[in-house]
Write a structure and sequence with these properties.
acetate-CoA ligase activity, globular, eight-stranded mixed sheet, binds ligand 6R9, Acetyl-coenzyme A synthetase, AMP-dep_synth/lig_dom, 20 helices, alpha/beta
Length: 648
């Protein structure tokens, strides 16, 4: 792989970018040698109400863990995204909304977005929301979703956005964990021409007696479709907006006050509420957005993510708006009305920067070039990817066909936990290698360690850790600080453990190889095997289940399920279909099993641990390299499973 092609920095990119190779190296050195001076300077990119006098106050010592940035400064995130741009570019577009229907689009200026945000902030207050409260947002991709997030930020409430593709059960679990009293939703969403019953899902989630904290459900009218209405609980967004004042003084927030939480899957247990605070997150999101995408005033920037994921938070909303950017918000899907859509939206809005996921690229690639060729895409200058490793074939297709060999690709590696991009090329500074996320951003010190935690030198492969803090780092797991310390700072003490494996080549370039824990990455969506397993065993006919990932051409990883049934159950194809539906209902369509294999028994150690390593090999059809099976309680189980796999 490292022997593959190298794409040197393009002259066009270099001549306009903020930094070239030498400047990158000098700034990087300064950022790790003297983080206080470096971030002290770059923190000024925000408007502070009370300027900070201290910058970095962090320790990764697990007995004494503390992560604080700019801690005595105060600010408001919505002011940085809105108010401060009004004088200079109040009438400039902030958001280009492109609807699911290609005939539906509109521009929202900074002034309009500011007004709507202030009004909704007042409306939230009228519903009792105060600083420090949690508001769950379960919405399609609408301007109102951005307004709801910014309005929370304005009054110091934490938003907790739950992906609109999640099931009522998954939504309910996330509401329950945080104890939100307010949910913002829409009557229905529309994706690919089909309605998504969001309000109905909220009703179902709240019907569960265990989800008991919600007092008000605020409903945006998107389709006008039929919904049920609970008089004492449900309110229309447009009703509470109607007489809300446009004047809403921002709440003065400490740099370390929470901005939002966002649930993400880990290797064990239920999803974790990743908590980000205000100052460091905003500095880091805006700075990475500017440098990685070489964002300059007037550029039209499009990130195709959903607000339900961290990419939507940092690189549709907070980063771009803090930079006064024009950010495109897309309600639809890449293959509706057909697979030419992405290219056509690029042409329609003259998009300069396109940031999307490998899974979307692979899906479009599989449809053939003719769809992409229906657009000129001549406005494009830069391409980006995020969410999972991009295979070199998909990279080359993105580069050659989508970008017409003209646009550098920034392969950005980061996580919900990191708040912003940690490893990525900078377009004017970094030679590209297809499939490599390349080099660290300013202030980020990656390292590879072996399983004993020894830091490895030179060209090598290992577990990816980060040696010191950066401003955008998460601060805690909501309601469970112990879990935060245990998950990220205890595996390799003194470092932040990413859960990813990586290789480093002779040039110091990082190649992310994927998760080394039990987290799946299906189409760029993170999912814990434990979550899917617990959904399966909740089915009355399932005795035991084990879930592993296996290589999948489009999704990157597919979901492979081994199920042991109760002895009275009939292992039929109908039951397989039923189990797929069951998981979709319990978690959501993103968690649909791709393959289910009946397993008379599962390979376990004598202490009862399922040996996933073996199950992964069987799922990948790598029967010859199962490794040591002698520690199994019953090695014959493996033979049975292989036989089943071959006859499947
Ligand atoms: C931003 C985001 C994080 C996990 C991460 C890694 C994988 C993300 C990647 C990548 C290879 C990239 N990942 N970007 N792997 N190359 N450019 O995706 O956050 O949803 O929390 O997922 O995604 O495995 O650990 P999140």
């Amino acid at each position: 792989m490292s022997d593959g092609k190298v794409y040197p920095v393009k002259e066009a990119a270099k001549s306009r970018a903020l930094v070239d190779k030498d400047q990158y190296m000098a700034m990087y050195k300064e950022s790790v040698d003297n983080p206080d001076a470096f971030w002290g300077e770059h923190g000024k990119r925000l408007d502070w109400i009370k300027p900070y006098t201290t910058v970095k106050n962090t320790t990764y010592d697990r007995n004494n863990l503390s992560i604080k940035w700019f801690e005595d400064g105060t600010l408001n995130a919505s002011v940085n995204c809105l108010d401060r741009h009004l004088a200079e570019r109040g009438d400039q577009t902030a958001i280009i909304f492109e609807g699911d229907d290609p005939a539906d689009s509109r521009h929202v200026t900074y002034r309009e977005l500011h007004q709507e945000t202030c009004k909704f902030a007042n409306a939230l207050k009228s519903q009792g929301v105060k600083k420090g409260d949690i508001v769950t947002i379960y919405m399609p991709m609408l301007v109102e979703t951005a307004v709801a997030m910014l309005a929370c930020a304005r009054i110091g409430a934490m938003h907790s956005v739950v992906f609109g593709g999640f099931s009522p059960e998954a939504l309910g679990a996330r509401i329950k964990d945080g104890g939100a009293k307010w949910v913002v939703t829409a009557d229905q969403g529309v994706r690919g021409g089909r309605p998504i019953p969001l309000k109905k899902n909220v009703d179902a989630a709240l019907n569960n007696p265990e989800v008991s904290t919600v007092e008000k459900v605020i409903v945006v009218k998107r389709t006008g479709g039929d919904i049920q209405w609970q008089e004492d609980r449900d309110v229309w967004f447009h009703d509470i907006m109607a007489d809300a004042s446009v004047d809403c003084p921002p709440e003065e927030m400490s740099a370390e006050d929470p901005l939002f939480m966002l649930y993400t899957s880990g290797s064990t247990g239920t999803p974790k509420g990743v908590l980000h605070t205000t100052g460091g997150y905003m500095v880091y999101a805006s700075m990475t957005h500017e440098y990685v995408f070489d964002y300059q005033q007037g550029d039209i920037y499009w990130c195709t993510a959903d607000f339900g994921w961290i990419t939507g938070h940092s690189y549709i909303l907070y980063g771009p708006l803090a930079n006064g950017a024009i950010t495109l918000l897309f309600e639809g899907v890449p293959n509706y009305p057909d697979s030419s859509r992405i290219g056509k939206v690029v042409d329609k809005h003259k998009v300069n920067v396109l940031y999307t996921a490998p899974t979307a690229i692979r899906a479009l690639m599989a449809e053939g070039d003719q769809y992409m060729k229906q657009s000129s895409r001549e406005s494009l200058r830069l391409l980006g990817t995020v969410g999972e490793p991009i295979n070199p074939e998909a990279w080359e297709w993105y580069y050659n066909v989508v970008g017409d060999e003209r646009c550098p690709i920034v392969d950005t590696w980061w996580q919900t936990e990191t708040g912003g991009i940690l490893i990525s090329p900078l377009p004017g500074a970094t030679d590209l290698k297809p499939g490599s996320a390349t080099l660290p951003f300013f202030g980020v010190q990656p390292a590879l360690v072996d399983s004993d935690g020894n830091v490895l030198d030179g060209a090598t492969e290992g577990n990816l850790v980060i040696l010191d803090s950066w401003p955008g780092q998460m601060r805690t797991v909501y309601g469970d600080h112990e879990r935060f310390i245990l998950t990220y700072f205890s595996t390799y003490p003194g470092t932040y453990f990413t859960g990813d494996g990586a290789r480093r080549d002779e040039d110091g370039y990082y190649w992310i190889t994927g998760r080394v824990d039990d987290v799946l990455n299906v189409s760029g969506h993170r999912m814990g095997t434990a979550e899917i397993e617990s959904a399966l065993v909740a089915h009355p006919l399932v005795a035991e289940a084990a879930v592993v990932g296996y290589p999948h051409d489009i999704k990157g990883q597919g979901i492979y399920v081994y199920v042991t049934l109760n002895h009275d159950a009939d292992p039929s194809d109908e039951l397989k279909t039923e189990l797929v539906q069951w998981v979709r209902k319990e978690i959501g369509p993103v968690a649909s099993p791709d393959l289910i294999q009946w397993a008379p028994g599962l390979p376990k150690t004598r202490s009862g641990k399922i040996m996933r390593r073996i199950l992964r090999k069987i799922a990948a059809n790598e029967h010859d390299s199962l490794g040591d099976t002698s520690t199994l309680a019953d090695p014959s189980v493996v033979e049975d499973l292989i036989e089943y796999r071959e006859n499947a």
